[in-house]
Design goal:
Beta-Lactamase; about 230 residues
Amino acid sequence: MSQSEDKKKVKKTSDLSEEQVKKYLEDNMDFFDRHTDLIGKFEFSHAPGKTASLFEKQVSVLREKNVELRHRITTLTNNAKENDAIFKNSRDLILSLLDAENLDELNANFSYAMENTFSVEYFCMIIFGDEEKTKPIRVEKYDVASDKIGAIIKGQKPVCGALRKTELDFLFPESKGIGSAAVIPIINTEVIGVIAMGSSNATYYNSDMGTLFLTYIAEILARSISNINY
């Protein structure tokens, strides 16, 4: 080989970019199987004053991936346990609502679950009726409720976030300092009441949160209330 040809070959090799080398190795995964003599020649920064061969580097990478995989499995396991707990608590609440024989018992079962099972900071259930009643269950005339939370009633959809003061005062008359709330209409052909949850945290209930569970509870309440003569 002439000197000019040798220089041309060196230049051609040096023109290879890192991406080209990477692409070649990715397309030829058995490269180091076919060139085992190279494995011990590669050295990588491992720790101050130490180097590691390609094989040791691979082992290190595999260890790191193993740790990451364990973390993922732990996360999935914890999520599964949390989901199991949510399912059990939801099932118990639904059964207690379906078993209620009157509105007072319905409210008591709902309130117990909100306070003791789901640890809701503020909550209420309001039923619309002809006669106003505050204890043990709260019943408000439809016209009064419509005047205070008319937009929520007309929308017939869950509302989450910061509410107007007049709305908060109506829903939680004895509670102050509520930063955010979720209000879900109880619908049985028409709105017959609402359930509401509140938090002192201004961002706890927000427009981006899912309301499927709360809507489901409201549907169960609607079915239970329709079976109770009030």
